[in-house]
Design goal:
Layout: E1 2-6, H1 10-21, E2 25-29, H2 33-40, H3 51-62, E3 65-68, E4 79-82, H4 97-110, E5 117-121, H5 129-142, E6 150-154, H6 164-169, E7 174-178, H7 181-190, E8 198-201, H8 203-234, H9 238-246, H10 267-280, H11 287-311, E9 318-322, H12 337-347, E10 351-355, H13 360-366, E11 372-373, H14 377-381, E12 386-389, E13 406-409, H15 416-422, E14 424-427
Parallel strand pairs: 1-2, 1-4, 2-3, 4-5, 5-6, 7-8, 9-10, 9-12, 10-11, 12-13, 13-14
Antiparallel strand pairs: 6-7
Helix pairs in contact: 1-3, 4-5, 8-10, 8-11, 11-12
Bound molecules: nicotinamide-adenine-dinucleotide.
Residues 6-12, 29-32, 35, 83-86, 98, 101-102, 123-124, 157, 159, 161, 265-266 line the site of nicotinamide-adenine-dinucleotide.
């Protein structure tokens, strides 16, 4: 099949590379020249395990994957997958400007196509968006009939950054929300080589499945952090409690790592968007999901409270922040706890020495001036008054790095018993 992927970010590029690897011919359409050029040179513009190797083999050797800024290239494809970003507005609501732009431009191109074409959205969009926004825009700008001339699908992505390539080839499930059966059949065929349960449903249900998944994962994290805060008062180790919980098959062992809470490009923004839409559009302000966000907001700042307890006023204190990405094995700093923590440290007059193996440039782009970017963890640690471990990169997990230092661990990166033998160690909620 010939497939166009609109938006070549974490989701779009991994999807494009995965589909090309499975034998399809894929063109990525992106508005960003730099990304398009990098992809055409076989270089990944994002840090994602396995993606560079995949891209270099697919672009240069097989020629099955290429990129362009020209929407008209959609004309020669059978299927367009919309993978553009859906960021938050300042009030937490979803910002659909990229979705609107993509739907309009796809519609304009499809106006001159005579044969059937499927448009499937993979971006995360509030339930009702395909019906209320995407379908009307496609109809208006193409002059063709969605559900008949243009097949419509919502096909959410569930990848985890850092493991995205692996997740593409072995997903837990494939959700196909279809307006017309023909479009759903085509999507099922596209993913035919992938072994996973396929659940076919209507579009709005598929949109809600994506939000419910992220809301559940976020709830597990805030739940264990709340339990951790109680455990800390009792002198009980929450990691032992989580281990005890994990033997119950109904609970499992995933997303039960207590610490400074969730960040990243999905959980915080999707939860905010769902809470906003539910309260302001669907007529149900969801108390549980609001509490999940509140717990998460407070949790990250606990690391600063502990630093103040240890050091007193932070004005003029040299604080090393290890880890800027929202989690290890990615360069993504969107909604990363490190960014919020550093902003507060700077407001308090601390001298911040930051280090991350992959995310330094992305952090520089969003942080205010005044942060000293270090060349290694050891460089950040040397001459610091206190070290905050904010992201659990493997290279930070060596207790010997922290001899005689004050260390506050936000991610259980270190074994508390071993760490306490070499440094002044405090876990954020254990
Ligand atoms: P991203 O910001 O990394 O990538 C989006 C890409 O779209 C960018 O390259 C941007 O230049 C491009 N773009 C923007 N407007 C465009 C337009 N009109 N036409 C063509 N290209 C355009 O975003 P992402 O992390 O890949 O996320 C994309 C969507 O997938 C979001 O809705 C997100 O919530 C969802 N999602 C993300 C993840 C994740 O882990 N990153 C996981 C599941 C779902």
């Amino acid at each position: 099949m010939i497939i166009s992927v609109i938006g070549a970010g974490y989701v779009g590029l991994v999807t494009a590379a995965g589909l090309a690897r499975n034998g399809h011919s894929v063109i990525c359409i992106d508005v960003d020249d730099l990304k398009v050029n990098a992809i055409n040179q076989g270089v990944s513009p994002i840090c994602e395990a396995g993606l560079d190797d995949l891209l270099s083999s697919l672009t240069s050797r097989s020629g099955r994957l290429r990129a362009s800024t020209a929407y008209r290239e959609i004309l020669d494809t059978d299927l367009s997958l919309i993978c553009v970003g859906t960021p938050s507005n300042s009030d937490g609501s979803i910002n659909l400007r990229h979705i609107r732009d993509a739907a309009k431009r796809i519609g304009q191109v499809l106006g001159s196509k005579k044969s059937y074409h499927v448009v499937a959205t993979r971006s995360t969009i509030i339930p009702g968006t395909t019906k209320d926004v995407i379908i009307p825009l496609l109809a208006k700008y193409s002059g063709r009939k969605p559900g008949k001339d243009i097949g419509i699908v919502y096909n959410p992505e569930f990848l985890q950054e850092g493991k995205a390539v692996q997740a593409f080839f072995s997903p837990d499930r494939i959700i196909i929300g279809e307006l017309d059966k023909r479009a759903g059949n085509l999507l099922a065929k596209v993913y035919g080589d992938i072994e996973a349960p396929v659940f076919r449903t209507d579009i709005t249900t598929a949109e809600m499945i994506k939000y419910a998944s992220n809301a559940f994962l976020a709830t597990k994290i805030s739940f264990i952090n709340e339990v951790a805060n109680i455990c800390q008062k009792l002198g009980v180790d929450v990691y032992d409690v989580a281990k005890g919980l994990s033997f119950d098959y109904r609970i499992g062992d995933k997303f039960l790592s207590a610490g400074i809470g969730f960040g990243g490009s999905c959980l915080p923004k999707d939860l905010r968007a769902l809470v906003y839409a539910s309260a302001n559009r669907f007529g149900y302000p969801p108390p549980l999901l609001k509490a999940v966000l509140d717990v998460n907001k407070a949790q990250a700042l606990k690391i600063i409270d502990i630093a103040e307890r240890k050091l007193g006023d932070l004005d003029g204190k040299r604080i090393a922040v290890l880890g800027l990405a929202f989690k290890p094995n990615t360069d993504d700093v969107r909604d990363a706890p490190a960014i919020r923590i550093i902003r507060v440290l700077l407001e308090k007059g601390a001298l911040v020495k930051a280090y991350d193996p992959e995310a330094m440039q992305n952090a520089r782009n969003v942080l205010p001036g005044g942060v000293e970017y270090c060349t290694s963890a050891a460089d950040a640690i040397a001459s610091s008054d206190c070290i905050l471990i904010v992201t659990e990169w493997a290279e930070f997990r060596d207790e010997n790095l922290y001899q005689s230092k004050i260390v506050i661990d936000g991610r259980r990166a270190l074994d508390p018993r071993k760490a306490k033998a070499v440094c002044d160690y405090q876990g954020v909620c254990w």
